[in-house]
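User: Predict the complex with iron/sulfur cluster.
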Amino acid sequence: MTAGSFDFAPLLAAGLPPPAVKHAGFPKFNFVGGHNDAEHVPVDFELRGCPISKAQLLEVITAFLHGRRPAVSPHSVCVECKARGNVCVMVAHGTPCLGPVTHAGCNALCPSYHRGCYGCYGPAESPNAPALTAQLREMGVADLDLVRMLRTFNAAAPAFRAESEELTS
Ligand code: SF4
Ligand code: SF4
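Assistant: Here is the predicted structure with iron/sulfur cluster placed in the model:
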């Protein structure tokens, strides 16, 4: 089964449990991926990623149906990267990586293939973008390239937008 082929019909046909009804209905769940739609439309829970993670999607649906908080960690890609035992591409190869400020969920896909993270999952919780860009500058990354990195995905996400605007001011 792929995330795109998930069949919601049996869940809906079975009727919604009280927690789902209380929270205004599972069918109204608005899953957004890699963008900043929560600023424009009401959402019950925001999943990061473009596309979003199938595992995180199923976790949110399961949690919602049981009336509990989804166990979707807000930590950065670096945590997943270290959990996989990856060698850090920044430390080992000087490859720019947005992993320290990017929301987890992809299981550190890009660094696992020796590539830097491009930030497609959007900002992690409380990201320190200025600290990362200062480090990337020290590594020789030009400001214009830093701006491009921050604006490739999630350009309007507050943490990324603020830092890219700071770099261009
Ligand atoms: S490769 Fe990127 S995501 Fe992995 S530990 Fe290094 S900075 Fe973090
Ligand atoms: S760009 Fe970053 S967040 Fe997106 S899949 Fe690659 S490592 Fe994961």
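The chain has two domains: 3-65, 77-168.
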